[in-house]
Amino acid sequence: MAINAGNINEVELKSSLRKETVKSIKKDWQLYSLLILPIIYYIIFKYGPLYGNIIAFRKYVPGGPVYGTDWVGFRYFKMFITDPTFWNVFKNNIILSIGSLIFGFPLPIIFALLLNELSNGLFKRVVQTTSYLPHFLSAVIVAEIIMEMLSPSSGVINMLIKTLGGEPINFLASPEWFRPIYWISGIWQETGWGAIIYLAALSNISPELYEAAAIDGAGRWQQTVHITIPGIMPTIIILLILNIGGLMGVGFEKILLLYNPLTYSTADVISTYLYRMGLESNNFSYATAIGLFESIIGFTLVTVANYISRKLTDTSLW
């Protein structure tokens, strides 16, 4: 009887939640209607194209049937797994992504904490505004700024090097310089924008906690360690999970605009390799197989990171 009563209560709870949801939608239907366009966008441009992954298992010929002709199974997967070029590209992808995570992820947190300590409201707004403006620059503009600054003949960096008595360096033609350029430009472009989320999380921390800590004699550093950082830790963990899930997706546009055959050894990543294989070489099935492999790795990473986070911190995406 207890089991039956439990089942009845569960059914009643689900029915009550369903009624509350319908009631909420009817009440705020104008707000919910704003979801229509994003949902349509994701259906057309995100979920619809998923069916096209079938050509990773079929032989596709440009001008032929949209979903290929003959079934070839894992032929294209075996091709890239045994291709040394792919594994070099894969290695570059991992190095650039992990470097961006290590150097780029903590800086918005630190920057937000520093901004939060500013007492001058006007100065704080000016700094925050100027710091996140680079985020809105297109990849073309960012690439052009980088090329102008690093130009061997007229770039600011090389002019400074020559002033100090050194020899000009052709940064964009040197494989060893590509990764630092990519990381530094990413930090410059995204630090201010990333700090906005943490500033929003900081604003939700109760001022009473700081007042109580100050009464107990805690200094600013102690308040930061024991109140501020724990207060934004759920936000940090969620964003870290999302960043880990996006490790395989590096900045395709910026790399495409900055790299050249001289820097392929360190600059060529999966997305640019796919571009050359698919659009330039018309090997669409091979490119689709690599893209599907990349997506599976990304999904696995975010799932594992979410599982570990849930076990260790009780904070997770699902």
Topology:
Elements: H1 2-27, H2 29-33, H3 36-47, H4 75-81, H5 84-104, H6 106-116, H7 121-132, H8 139-149, H9 156-163, H10 175-203, H11 207-215, H12 220-245, H13 252-258, H14 264-267, H15 270-280, H16 284-313
Measure the end-to-end span.
Answer: 33 Å
The biggest beta sheet reads: none
Shape: globular
Number of domains: 1
- Look at the structure and name the CATH superfamily: MetI-like
Tally of extended strands?
A: 0
The averaged pLDDT comes out at 87
Per DSSP, the total helix count is 16
**N-to-C SSE string, H for helix and E for strand:** HHHHHHHHHHHHHHHH
CATH architecture: Orthogonal Bundle
Rg (CA only): 25 Å
Q: How big a fraction of the residues is strand?
A: under 5%
Q: What low-confidence regions span 5 or more consecutive residues with pLDDT below 50?
A: none
Bin the helical content.
over 70%
Class, according to the CATH hierarchy?
Mainly Alpha
The assigned structural class equals: mainly alpha
CATH topology: MetI-like fold
GO biological process, one term: transmembrane transport
Membrane topology: Multi-pass membrane protein
Protein name: Carbohydrate ABC transporter membrane protein 1, CUT1 family
Domain ABC transmembrane type-1: 90-305
Can you describe what's shown?
This protein has 318 residues and is mostly helical. It has 16 helices and no strands. Helix 5 (84-104) packs across helix 10 (175-203) and helix 7 (121-132) packs across helix 10.
Give a quick precis of the structure.
With 318 residues, the protein is mostly helical. It has 16 helices and no strands. The chain starts with a helix and ends in a 5-residue tail after the last helix.
